[in-house]
Amino acid sequence: MASQLKIDFKSFGKADAATAVILVSDDLEPSNAAVGMLGQGLSELVRKAAKAENFSGKYLATIVIPAPMGLETERLVVVGLGPDKDADKRDWARLGGTCAAAIKTGTAVIVADEAISMDDVAAMALGARLNAYKFDRYKSKKKDKSETLSKVVFAVADTDAAKKAYKQAEPVADGVILARDLVNEPANVLFPEEFAKRVGALSKLGVAVEVLDEKDLDKLGMRSLLAVGQGSPRQSHVVVMRWDGGKEKDAPVAFIGKGVCFDTGGISIKPAQGMEDMKGDMGGAACVTGLMMALAGRNAPVNAVGVIGLVENMPDGKAQRPGDIVTAMSGATIEVINTDAEGRLVLADIMWYAQERFKPRFMVDLATLTGAIMVALGSAYSGMFSNDDTLAQQLTTVGEATGEKVWRMPLASEYDKMIESKFADILNSAGRMGGSCTAAAFLKHFVKDGTPWVHLDIAGTAMGSPKTELSQGWASGWGVRLLDKLVRDHYEG
Ligand code: BES
Ligand code: MN
Ligand code: ZN
């Protein structure tokens, strides 16, 4: 689908690629390994080039030296690590992405000297792959091979250890890339049934995949979810993914994703401007799918379930109307005063279903839920709402570590009051004020007592995201790395 960057590992030896990459801290001194591979003249070359380019080895800064004198490679890239006193703040995935961006085309060897741990090398490889990702499926003229980055080889002290570490990181990169592909696909291609079909491919990795169709959902009483899809000729689906890598008796961790394959707003239709972005309104479901791929791919010792609700929100003669009252699977009645507040209607039923069926250890839902969270946090943080301080703190910490950051927002009785309905148990919308908080208050109705729960509003982070070291922009695959690390650090074994 998307062009894939090849990664390999070798011992120090010859720098046999078009581009060589070395990393230096602010002393600008190349490592022994780099000098060994590229020759005695390297130190002087770097010092001169640094002076000419005003390069001080700053963290994530780069210089590119074409036709480097005395070297066999066509180009030498020097990447800054910053001062060694800040060594523990280095994000090796971002450094890997920085290398890939500077290499740009062809093949490269990156000298990962002895000071870099094999886990850090694996993180660099992941970062390089994420930087190189682009979605060019619908470009009839593909870029020439010579115009793309095709292969990166890491020269390391211990190739076996590096390969072993990359075995853990590679599936995470695969998961992020799958999530990006799903978000990037247009809605005429990726409608609920097609999405479900693509999830089916995870069964190759040992994930048990069940697809529920509208008949099944009706039997389960998921009227809230079905109401959203009733204006579309495309059938709604719920997909359940199970990865049983843990002990048989252990309750699973559960991840729930909003999968609105296109959100027109329904009868409460959205303005035309920017509506094309609503092909990405399944970013939560894409993240859950990518995460399940990562967990299975690296054989994670954990029991995990992913449940995604796939629908299309369209205006139509059969569509739901403002004022309609629906009964959710939980038995709660919902007055739908705005058909554009549809994501919470989908989540209400799949959250309930996941708890009833799996009695999970905790439940994290992800949804491109509100424009209001973008106003509050932009694209730097996802909004986090939680009934559990431990889980919230764990996510805050892994968020800082992965760069997929979360900012805790309030759950409070004031917001509960705002969604009281005159005619039903709750309203599905309370208008613009505190829009993300009232959305979370709505979801809280569908969390059972005793279920530790986190809601992540990823409207600002999953799509329309900026270019970074790890992404060319728009679909980010946000959350796959975050939740993989949450599981890895706290819920395995
Ligand atoms: N999918 C949208 C939220 C969204 C907006 C995501 C922009 C990404 C970018 C969601 O279904 C929605 O329409 N929310 C409404 C809720 C309102 C009607 C209470 C919103 O945020 O305006
Ligand atoms: Mn909407
Ligand atoms: Zn939506």
Main sheet: which strands, in order across?
Answer: 7-8-10-9-13-17-14-15
Taken from the alpha-carbon principal axes, the silhouette is elongated
On the 0 to 100 scale, the average pLDDT is 97
The share of residues in extended strands comes to 15-25%
Bound molecules: ligand BES, manganese (II) ion, zinc ion
Structural class of the secondary elements? Answer: alpha/beta
Q: Mind describing the biggest β-sheet?
A: 8 strands, mixed
Provide tags for this entry.
15 helices; 17 strands; 35% helix; 493 residues; elongated; binds manganese (II) ion; alpha/beta; binds ligand BES; binds zinc ion; six-stranded mixed sheet; eight-stranded mixed sheet
